[in-house]
Write a structure and sequence with these properties.
Length: 232
């Protein structure tokens, strides 16, 4: 496992009790293969970190945007703390390289799996809270979420249409939307991607963008609009 001294420098926190940080990085698969390991998995710390993270983000939104309704703040908070965002932040910290994983999880790509990264990120927040208190945990969260918070302030936080579409489709049809790229054109500096989103064999949305991700979001947005119109 990588040097935790380096990781502490990356996150800007020096732990009094290093065992808390070590626990935050223990995936349950590691314990299945190493039952005598001294520390438990990171799941309890993840639970705590999720609560601390939610509170800090909610308080920040409450003070930063006094004009927003409860519903709009809820949507912004959900966009900030969704798995994709947390996994992206974790990846930017190189967190995957510090995880203790079982062999099976390791060889199946567990160090880059979004679920593992997001959960470990929350566990690290929980560990910081226990070791340093709420003030340091708050400062750490606001620092780590700096770019995302600036995007909100500037009105540039992208709505997560893909997650919304998946929730709707799974709730109504018990299926998962599938995205397929149907076109990629243009020079490298000005690419254009076209993506369709399908449920079963039916195309329910189509979108274009300068990246595959942007095209998928646009396809999901068009699908949501279509489903809303059909439902209405």
């Amino acid at each position: 496992m990588a040097d935790l001294d380096v990781f502490e420098q990356i996150i800007g926190v020096t732990f009094r009790d290093r065992a808390l940080l070590e626990q935050a990085l223990v995936h349950r698969s590691y314990l299945n293969e190493n039952p005598d390991f001294a520390l438990p998995s990171n799941e309890r710390l993840e639970f705590l970190g999720d609560a601390v993270l939610g509170l800090v983000v909610a308080e920040k939104l409450y003070h930063e945007f006094p004009q927003l309704s409860e519903g709009k703040m809820t949507k912004l908070r959900a966009a900030l703390v969704r798995q994709e965002t947390l996994a992206s932040l974790a990846a930017s910290l190189g967190l995957g390289g510090y995880l203790r994983l079982g062999w099976g999880e390791e060889v199946s790509g567990g160090r880059s799996r979004q679920t593992n990264l997001a959960r470990a990120f929350e566990a690290v927040i929980g560990a910081i809270f226990l070791d340093q208190g709420f003030g340091v945990a708050t400062d750490s969260i606001l620092r780590l979420f700096g770019d995302q918070l600036r995007r909100i302030t500037e009105g540039r936080l992208t709505t997560d249409y893909k997650s919304r579409l998946q929730e709707v489709v799974q709730a109504e049809q018990r299926l998962t939307p599938v995205y397929r790229m149907v076109e990629a054109s243009g020079p490298d500096h000005d690419k254009r991607f076209v993506v369709e989103v399908m449920v079963g064999d039916t195309v329910i949305g189509r979108g274009a963008g300068k990246s595959k991700r942007m095209a998928e979001e646009e396809a999901a947005r068009s699908a949501i609009e279509r489903l809303s119109a059909d439902g209405g």
